[in-house]
Design goal:
By secondary structure, this protein is of the alpha/beta class. It has 2 domains: about 110 residues, 3-Layer(aba) Sandwich (Aspartate Aminotransferase, domain 2), CATH 3.40.640; about 80 residues, Aspartate Aminotransferase, domain 1, CATH 3.90.1150.10. The strands form 2 sheets. The chain has a 4-stranded mixed beta sheet, with helices on one face. Strands 5-6-8-7 form a 4-stranded antiparallel beta sheet, covered by helices on one side. It starts with a strand and ends in a 5-residue tail after the last helix.
């Protein structure tokens, strides 16, 4: 099985639909799972490829763009034969994996797609605004199409920035691993929240120690 998060986490980088199709096409003996948890914030879904490829499974979640993280609800889409195989496994182990309240909440979200689209537009706009302001502060970042940005500053240690932000009540993600340790993953919130983050970060950078 081949599993790809598109857009990727934690970088937010997205493959194009043609790149995804090349992967699916060149792995005919494998099920290719495209995890699209963040796809609604600017990337292109692979759902349109399902009629062409029997080995493609596209998964999405209600946790991000649909604002239902606590419900733990998601779905998978594939051709009928692959779904039948998955159901065979599901019903032989735990067929009662979604409760009625979660089902009702999920249906309610699907019936108000414009609300979801509006939220996604707001997040995307705030992401681009934050990226623009960070560039003015000297930050570098990946080309994120998710609801977060992956940033680094050439003059400041990632862990130092993380700890300084945390001490001031601003929480971001830091990965203490090779190739990632200089970066921070910053979730996009409201404009006021992003302004507070930017102001705090600007104060830290102007403070001296690195």
């Amino acid at each position: 099985m081949v599993v790809i998060a598109n857009p990727n986490a934690p970088t937010g980088i997205a493959l194009s639909l043609s790149q995804v199709e090349e992967i699916v096409k060149n792995n005919p003996e494998n099920v290719v799972v495209i995890d699209e948890a963040y796809v609604d914030f600017g990337a292109e879904s692979a759902l349109s490829l399902i009629p062409k490829y029997e080995n493609l499974l596209v998964t999405q979640t209600f946790s991000k763009s649909r604002s239902m993280a606590g419900a733990r609800l998601g779905f998978g889409a594939a051709n009928a034969a692959l779904i039948q195989d998955m159901n065979t496994v599901k019903y032989s182990t735990n067929p009662y994996n979604i409760n009625r309240m979660t089902m009702a909440a999920g249906l309610g979200v699907l019936e108000d797609e414009e609300y979801t689209r509006k939220n996604c537009r707001t997040v995307s706009e705030n992401r681009e605004y934050t990226k623009f302001e960070l560039e003015k502060l000297g930050f570098e970042m990946t080309k994120s199409l998710a609801n977060f940005i992956f940033i680094r500053h050439p003059d400041f240690d990632g862990k130092y920035l993380y700890e300084q932000l945390k001490a001031r009540g601003v929480l971001v993600r830091h990965f203490n691993k090779p190739r990632l340790s200089e970066y921070l993953r910053v979730t996009i919130g409201s404009r006021d929240e992003m302004d507070a983050f930017l102001k705090t970060l600007s104060d830290i950078i102007g403070g001296g120690n690195k």
